[in-house]
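Q&A log
Question type: sequence-to-structure
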Amino acid sequence: MRKLDLHGFTLEEAYQDFTDFIYSAYEDNISKVEIITGNSGQIKKEFPHWAENNHQIRYIENSWHKGSFIVKIEKKY
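Response status: OK
Response body:
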């Protein structure tokens, strides 16, 4: 599974890397990825809003260790 680790990024950098990463996974027809946000902080707080507003994402769920999200991506038609 492809992973993106957003530790150490500013909020703006994290958002840009997130959108680029999701677009790339969508273009490559990857169905599921993991986004590592850490257990706390502004990126973890903002991430659900980013995902909700991204049309290439079907849904997200917390991973088992709560420091990341599993993201289900729409199929490319």
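Response note: The radius of gyration is 11 Å.
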